[in-house]
Amino acid sequence: MLARPVAGVTVPAVAAAGSTSREPLVSVVIPTHDRAASLEQGIEAVLAGCAGVDTEVIYVDDSSTDDTPAILARYAAAGRIRHESVSVRAPGPARNAGAAVARGRYLLFTDDDCTVPPGWVAGMLASREHHRVSALSGGFRPARMETGAERYYAHRMATIFGARSKPVAAVPMMNLLVERSAFAAVGGFSPLRLPSMEDWEFCYRLTAAGHDLHYDPAVSVTHPYGRHWGYVWGRVVQAAWLGPAVWRLTGVDARRKLARDALRWAAAPLWCLVYYPPRSYLPALALEAVYFATRLAGAVFAGRVERRLRSGWAGS
Known about the structure:
Layout: E1 26-32, H1 36-49, E2 55-62, H2 68-77, E3 82-86, H3 91-101, E4 106-109, H4 120-131, E5 135-142, H5 148-161, E6 166-167, E7 176-179, H6 180-185, H7 198-208, E8 213-223, H8 229-250, H9 254-266, H10 268-275, H11 278-300, H12 302-310
Parallel strand pairs: 1-2, 1-4, 2-3, 5-8
Antiparallel strand pairs: 4-7, 5-7, 6-8
Helix pairs in contact: 5-11, 7-8, 8-11, 8-12, 9-11, 10-11
GO molecular function: glycosyltransferase activity
Family: Belongs to the glycosyltransferase 2 family. CrtQ subfamily.
Main location: membrane
């Protein structure tokens, strides 16, 4: 979907991405790891998506072992991006490293396997101004719908976010614009090496601090979901297991969350008929059962998981 400014909102057309002559309006921050095969294509799409807005693009290489560092160094030497290197093996702390050197009034996060549309930055700024919020999540569309696993995951994301603009409590970092001052006020992402749910953890603290978070899919990136069921099961189980520990870390009411999860599971035979195509119905029910059972186990052992995270365990 092409990014499109909201009617009646003006975004200044100023210097392009890579300009270092003055403080930019937006700092795009992208952590990356071993993405050499598609990195150049991704960088070019991001740079094109910055057109018309004074933007800097910061890639943070986290422990890559392929040609990722060399590619980033080449683009940085040409003045087209900025490049940081860390060895944290976790997306949250890697994003923090990029945010720490960012100069923009706004931080715009995406992932290294997302493809951003033309006009991305301008569209996100216009949408944020339209909703007048501290943080705005754009949409995320599947890059492919070829396998059963891809179709299931795309429909699962639709059950969570839908197609309408609305306030939300948490979002993934595929397409998030946030005021740098708000990001700094809550301390950025957790320094813990969360292998996933680091985005939820950050968003819970952001909204608890009084910063509005809005979801509007008018400006969407595309993202490839896992082609195989093993990937999907792994992602679903990991999120279910870590969720209660993240609630503990952020002070979220665990009983209320578990009650909502119980209602979701109890009603799954009905709502799965609405949100999933017939051939995905049984896998969806099975995954909902696994998700809820894992969530209950995660709640029982949340204290132990939190202690292991605090001691440096990455959950991998």
